[in-house]
Amino acid sequence: MRKPFVSVLIDTYNHERFIEEAIVSALEQDFPASEREILVVDDGSTDRTPEIVRKFEPHVRLLRKQNGGQASAFNAGIPECQGEIVAFLDGDDWWERKKLCVVIEEFASHPQIGALGHGFQEVDECGKPLAVIAPRKGCESCLRDLKEGSDFLMLRPFLGTSRLAIRKEILRQVGQLPDGLVIEADEFLAAVLPEYEAHDSAQAEPAAVTKLQ
């Protein structure tokens, strides 16, 4: 079974305290480096964030831009992604080691899936675990009826930036995000994904949510 090439897209702004941990968590994934790329979009940071990112070159590609917010960072980074799958990561978050392996296995074994999210762990500023927030069960949604629409509202918390991965073809359909979304551009993506997936000319591609064990 062929696994798709993956683009890890990290958006960051003044994350000098956290950006190194985010990048290291992407680099140290239990996933072949030859099957992924890592792109960091720096949204005009005024601290040491870009300096820290450059320590990881050439394993990580840095794209700097004038400060404009999360949507503008996504708009700058997504066209630069070469992968069939784009996995998003905020510069102040980190991934568990098997994150990419589990997510890409789901995409490879379920070609009908257009986007995928999962549960997450909340920690304090010192990294102390506070809570694990996860869906009660894995499920799919295409917004085909009222029940699926209702269920999708329950899934949206698991489609936030650092837990969201989307096929590049779906992102091409979505196009430019509204630049006015300085924050919570991931909320916009989660809201519009089913519309584009359900009208894909090739096949309906549900946004699936799965729990990482």
Q: In whole angstroms, how far apart are the ends?
A: 22 Å
Gyration radius (Cα, Å) is 16 Å
Q: How many DSSP-defined strands?
A: 10
Uncertain runs with pLDDT below 50, 5 residues or more? 198-213
| Strand percent estimate | 15-25%
The H-and-E topology, N to C, reads as EHEHEHEHEEEEHEHHE
Count of discrete domains: 1
* Sheet/helix structural class: alpha/beta
CATH superfamily: Spore Coat Polysaccharide Biosynthesis Protein SpsA, Chain A
Placed side by side, the strands forming the largest sheet appear as: 3-2-1-4-9-5-10-8
CATH architecture verdict: Alpha-Beta Complex
The CATH topology annotation reads as Spore Coat Polysaccharide Biosynthesis Protein SpsA, Chain A
Q: How much helicity do the residues have?
A: 25-40%
The average pLDDT score comes to: 83
| CATH C-level | Alpha Beta
Q: Label the overall shape.
A: globular
Q: What kind of sheet is the major sheet?
A: 8 strands, mixed
Count of helical segments?
7
Structure report:
There is one protein chain. This protein is α/β, with parallel strands linked by helices. The protein has one domain (6-209): Spore Coat Polysaccharide Biosynthesis Protein SpsA, Chain A, CATH 3.90.550.10. Helices cover 31% and strands 21% of the residues. It has 7 helices and 10 strands. It has helices spanning 19-27, 49-54, 70-77, 99-109, 146-155, 168-174, 185-198; strands at 6-12, 36-42, 61-64, 85-90, 115-117, 120-123, 129-133, 139-141, 165-167, 207-209. The strands form 2 sheets. Strands 3-2-1-4-9-5-10-8 form an 8-stranded mixed sheet, sandwiched between helices. A two-stranded antiparallel sheet has the order 6-7. The longest helix has 14 residues, at 185-198. The radius of gyration is 16 Å and the shape is globular. The chain starts with 5 loop residues before the first strand and ends with a strand.
